[in-house]
Design brief:
Blueprint: E1 4-12, H1 18-28, E2 32-44, E3 50-55, H2 58-71, E4 76-79, H3 85-95, E5 102-105, H4 119-130, E6 136-137, H5 141-148, H6 156-167, E7 173-177, E8 186-193, E9 196-203, H7 213-226, H8 231-247
Parallel strand pairs: 1-2, 1-4, 4-5, 5-6, 6-7
Antiparallel strand pairs: 2-3, 7-8, 8-9
The structure holds 3-hydroxy-5-(hydroxymethyl)-2-methylisonicotinaldehyde.
């Protein structure tokens, strides 16, 4: 029997991000994946790849989680894009129906191409209802600024400060991702575990963001924790997989290439 991991996230039909990336990552790391859909994102190739967004009915989200958690005894869950305060309520309630060893939250506020304004109500609801339940949270540069209430993050020290502020909101571990947004030649992530700070750094691969990098990173942490790894080792594997997956990215006709999880 292999370890299992559950994911609650949105569909991004092109296969770059969302639950498609999550489940591919679980499979790649040898974990049996299962998942519930929160929303459906369809890029619009006729309108500058705008994101068409449809939330799934909250009862249907609850039904999916009921079904999946009845079929397998999941103790590890990843939470990806939720998208609306109503969805956040439904997911917070459903999570409360059982004990979880590990809840990994990728605090997706907006996806690439969306307006930052759309993030505000989601930010408030995530901060109040989901963050306090999370074991691990994996904000990117924008999400770290928003959740930490900082106007800018311009250095690794700022990123550590943001991670510490977010940790004060409840999660045990914060992995804040500098990605291509911080100046310099390295993509730097910081893990904050209480007072301990671990820095993960790899040379940047180009200066463009790649679709699915955040989803793959958090899903890989989830899979490794499901197998019993320590958080430090889980982040090491996640960083390796994302770095290799970006190096061997899948080209696309959209403005973003996507991560190839099958690389390792
Ligand atoms: O990369 C963030 C993300 C997560 N989940 C879904 C998405 C996106 C971005 O497009 O569509 C479903």
């Amino acid at each position: 029997m292999v370890h299992t991991a559950f994911v609650i996230a949105g569909s991004e039909a092109s296969g770059g991000a969302g639950i498609q990336a999550d489940l591919k990552t679980f499979q790649q790391l040898g974990v049996y994946g299962a998942g519930a859909l929160t929303c459906i994102v369809s890029f619009d190739p006729k309108n500058n790849w705008a994101h068409r967004f449809v939330p799934v009915d909250p009862q249907v989200i609850a039904d999916q989680i009921e079904a999946a958690t009845a079929v397998h005894n999941h103790t590890t869950v990843k939470i990806g894009m939720l998208g609306t305060p109503t969805t956040i309520d439904a997911v917070a309630q459903a999570l409360g129906r059982q004990q979880w060893d590990t809840i990994v939250l990728d605090p997706v506020l907006i996806c690439k191409g969306q307006e930052p304004g759309a993030a505000l109500d989601t930010d408030t609801a995530l901060r109040e209802k989901i963050l306090p339940l999370a074991t691990v949270v994996t904000p990117n540069h924008f999400e770290a600024m928003t959740l930490a209430g900082m106007d800018s993050i311009d250095s690794v020290d700022d990123l550590i400060e943001a991670a510490k502020r977010i940790q004060a909101l409840g999660p045990r571990y914060v992995v804040a991702k500098g990605g291509v947004e911080l100046p310099g030649d390295y993509a730097v992530d910081v893990l904050v575990d209480g007072e301990e700070v671990t820095i993960y750094s790899e040379p940047k691969i180009g200066s463009e963001r790649v679709s699915g990098a955040g989803c793959t990173f958090a899903a890989a942490i989830t899979a490794e924790l499901a197998k019993g790894s320590s958080i430090k080792d889980a982040v090491t594997v996640a960083k390796q997989l994302v770095t290799a997956g970006i190096t061997h990215r899948q080209p696309s006709n959209a403005p973003f290439d996507s991560v190839w999880q099958g690389v390792l």
